[in-house]
Amino acid sequence: MKGDLFSSDHMVQPAITPGMSVQNAKSIRYVVNGEMLARQGAMVAYRGNLQFERKGQGVGGMLKRAVTGEGLPLMAVRGQGEAWFAHEAQNCFIVEVEPGDEFTVNGRNVLCFDASLSYEIRTVKGAGITGGGLFNSVFTGHGRLGLICEGNPLVIPVSPQQPVYVDTDAVVGWTARLHTSLSRSQSIGSMLRGGSGEAVQLKLEGEGFVVVRPSEQTPQKEH
Question: Could you tell me which of 80, 82, 77 has the C-alpha nearest to residue 14?
Answer without folding.
Answer: 82
